[in-house]
Design brief:
Strand order of the largest sheet: 2-1-3-5-4
Largest sheet: 5 strands, antiparallel
Order of helices and strands: HEHEHEEHHE
Structural class: alpha+beta
Number of domains: 1
Number of helices: 5
Number of strands: 5
Strand content: 15-25%
Shape: globular
């Protein structure tokens, strides 16, 4: 077992969980969209458990193969409805950045403080100089990497040093179902 600080930092792991997708028609949707000022959103995908409820906790893997094993072996809860998905997220500037695997579909990038509160999707309306970036969020509420980098640089000054302004950029992936049969 590797006990170095690098492997013990949660940013160095691949986090895997089963999440509920928030969509129009959900009980809090209208108020939530007004709070964010992002009427173009069609759904919300995030690491933030309030915005994207986590059904069974977060599990951590050292590699893509270990992350897939967590799902394929039933350690991470199986999907029970079309409103659920398996989320994997990694530090977009860390050792697992840029995962390329046929079962990992990049959803976009989120920003959060150390508590995994999404600065993008759970801290209210983004005003100047961040509003142009917020308007470029994808229909799932996430950013492309370039916009996430720009937001990370602007947040500390724009939010006057608020703790939610000091963020990690996370790359979010949907883990797709795979072949589980044995030959």
């Amino acid at each position: 077992m590797n006990t170095s600080n690098a492997i013990d930092r949660r940013e160095d792991w691949i986090s895997v969980s089963t999440r509920k997708i928030r969509r129009p028609g959900d009980p809090e949707w209208d108020d939530y969209i007004r709070f964010l000022g992002l009427p173009h959103l069609q759904e919300v995908r995030t690491i933030d458990s309030w915005c994207n409820p986590c059904h069974d906790g977060n599990y951590f893997a050292h590699s893509v193969e270990e992350a897939l094993d967590l799902i394929d072996e039933g350690i991470v809860r199986k999907l029970r409805s079309p409103d659920e998905y398996h989320l994997a997220f990694v530090d977009a500037q860390g050792p697992h950045a840029g995962i390329e695997h046929p079962r990992f579909r990049l959803l976009g990038h989120d920003l959060s403080d150390e508590t995994w509160t999404s600065s993008l999707l759970n801290c209210g309306y983004w005003m100047d100089p961040l509003d142009a970036i917020a308007r470029r969020t994808m229909p799932n509420g996430l950013l492309n990497f370039e916009d996430a980098l720009q937001a990370k640089a602007l947040l500390p000054e724009a939010w006057n040093g608020d703790p939610h302004a000091f963020v990690t950029i996370w790359a979010l992936y949907e883990i797709l179902d795979g072949e589980t049969s044995e030959d």
